[in-house]
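Can't paste images in this forum, so I'm doing it all in text. The chain is below; anyone willing to post the predicted structure tokens underneath?
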Amino acid sequence: MGHPFLPLTDEERRQMHKTIGIERIEELFKVIPSSIQESAFFDLPAYNETETVKLFTQWAEMNTPASKMVSFLGAGAYEHAIPAAVKHLATQSEFLTAYTPYQPEMNQGILQAFFEYQSLIADLTGMDVANASMYDGPTALAEAVLLAGNFTRRREILVFPGLNPEAQQVLEAYTRYTNLRLKFLSPTAELTAPPASFLNEQTAAVVIQNPDFFGQLVLTKELLTAIKEKGALSIVYVNDPISLAILEPPGTLGADLVVGEAQAFGLPLSFGGPYLGFLAAQKTFLRSLPGRLVGKTTDLEGKEGFVLTLQTREQHIRRERATSNICSNQALCAIMATIYLSLLGPVGLQEVAWSTVRNSHYLFSQLTRIPSVKAYFDAPFFHEFALDLGTLPPDFFTKMKERGFFPGYDLSHYSPPLSGGLLLYTSELRTKDEMDKFCAEMEDCLS
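Text version of the structure:
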């Protein structure tokens, strides 16, 4: 049990109610629909701690453990093998703290870990510099877009099709009350034309996810060059940076900013968080980066030391010069990613990536042998792909889960016209037997 049960006396409860201005504790739950409040789950007797734990344990056992299911669900959160040493090392008391420590005179170890994290991200993305981590991938993307608008003094942000819908929602929220204008490009009408046709003098940046939400590899040097020639910045969003182990780095291709989600680097799925955003850039944008930047130096005695080179939020510098109000840098998550990458090394990370590619392409080849299953796209993909299953039986997802499989992401949630579409993901964790059984069950449920 993570947190003990803390009982209160009736008098203590009355004092708390008076302080927050309520008569009865039920007033705190008035926002919950009455139909839910009337259920048995809210009608709890006055149990003691032992009885409460037993009751909640019984309820928990009604669930099917995720460990007993074989998942082919990705769509932005990716399951990879995590070495046992990651959790063991990251939960040492020197790292696992209630607050993000960054004072250089007290926390050289933490600062060195951040420096190593920055170096690893910069190397993988092919960029000059990376900051000391951010909340998550969508937040990092939004911060990069704000950076681009401030740097170029332009207003229009072009967004290529295939951006993760959750990242799009965060981006829209961040820019809603700014002078930036988001323009989402159509996958059919506009992208068949040369890049110069959809760029203009007001284009501040172009956002490109690679691999995109459907798994396709869409990034090319020619596209980034065309963006640069128009004076706009290119922002590449990477949802699973495992792909960077074998793909040419975006920085090498000419990207200005590379952002993304580093959850795949040793962080468990955890029902959606906490995750870890990264933001890397060419040195031109060094002083415009949000968040913190750790640097290495020497002291008066010539000893190596680590310091916060840049702190760009309003707590540290004048408000009008601040580039961000980021108050946390996901310290523990960044340390876990650093440990994961250090344990695997470049060769190990490449092996994970290639194993993932082999499994996903094998699964694709087997599923497309089913007569009713067709590929949505013919572009190259990394570890995720979209299939058209035709008219889905109404109980398709229920049947697949009953047989022990999470079959993938229902694309009708992404866009109603994609009803019957399924986005599937697989990694190095899946065995041939699991994939073969999955294909057999899919064919049976679709027939």
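The longest helix spans residues 331-367. The chain has a mean pLDDT of 88.
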